[in-house]
Design a protein that fits this description.
By secondary structure, the protein is mostly helical. It has helices spanning 14-33, 37-54, 56-73, 83-107, 125-149, 161-190, 196-214, 221-238, 241-263. 38% of the residues are buried.
């Protein structure tokens, strides 16, 4: 079975490497958080240029992350559930994950990016218990955040069966993709050059910026950023993609139910907000 191990952190030039990591995070914030490509692309280029002089191996790995960020920046990032948009955005999401993986695996001939599903380890009681906690937190947090802030209006109302299906498909597919790209790709590559806590902060900044553009506005970053940090930390501990995806999908299932209720208050009257 494959594992999610990475090469040891390179300890030389730690401050310079941290500076490169900050530039990568800043580029994501500009590209997605502020929707400023004219500032975001130069920032991303500056990060790659700095990495080239600091550590060529870091440059190579950050170039893989950059290919994904650029792919995402070329399509509209929003919550539309129209089939043309879902297919267009889905193609960009697929390119953002597959391109770094294929380049790493078949061009650079390494296994820096892995997607460990069958790890061979049973989930512990603590891990099962955490899944229950996730559902409870989702129930307590998401209705208050989405409905009181009005952020739910960033998602279209799903009334027909086909629309409900597409909303369910979109929320779940995006949740899986988040873990494939931000955790298994960005976090895994950053960990090769930065201490885990620094790599986790950078991926969480990218994660939060993307979801901000998607529609998690208002005080959403104060929810998404800690969630992204915990997901990175959980992946480090469990080394299991299947586990962090399960966590994310449980949270997103509550999100899906809240969105249905918020647009149609007469159904699913199970939330307190």
């Amino acid at each position: 079975m494959t594992s999610a191990t990475t090469t040891p952190v390179q300890r030389d030039r730690p401050r310079l490497k941290l500076g490169v990591g900050v530039l990568i995070a800043a580029s994501g914030i500009l590209l997605f958080g502020f929707a400023m490509p004219l500032a975001g692309y130069p920032m991303l280029a500056a990060a790659l240029l700095a990495a080239w002089f600091v550590d060529r191996a870091m440059f190579r790995d950050l170039a893989l992350i950059a290919t994904g960020l650029i792919a995402l920046s070329l399509v509209p990032i929003n919550t539309s559930i129209d089939w043309p948009h879902m297919l267009q955005m889905g193609a960009a999401l697929a390119i953002a994950v597959l391109t770094p993986y294929l380049l790493s695996r078949f061009v650079f001939r390494d296994h820096a990016i892995r997607f460990p599903v069958a790890t061979g380890h049973r989930w512990t009681r603590l891990e099962w218990g955490y899944l229950i906690v996730v559902v409870g937190l989702g129930y307590a947090i998401l209705p208050v955040y989405l409905i009181r802030s009005g952020v739910y209006q960033n998602w279209p109302a799903a009334t027909t069966g086909d629309e409900v299906f597409r909303l369910f498909l979109g929320t779940n597919a995006l949740g899986i993709w988040d873990e494939l790209f931000f955790i298994c790709t960005c976090f895994a590559l950053l960990r090769r050059h930065l201490p885990d806590w620094q790599a986790n902060l950078v991926q969480a900044a990218l994660f939060t910026s993307f979801l901000w553009e998607l529609g998690f506005r208002s005080y959403g970053p104060f929810i998404i950023f800690p969630f992204a940090l915990v997901q990175g930390w959980t992946f480090k501990l469990t080394k299991s993609l299947s586990y962090i995806v399960t966590v994310h999908l449980l949270f997103d299932f509550v999100l899906f139910l809240v969105l249905l209720h918020s647009h149609n208050p007469s159904i699913l009257q199970i939330f307190i907000y």
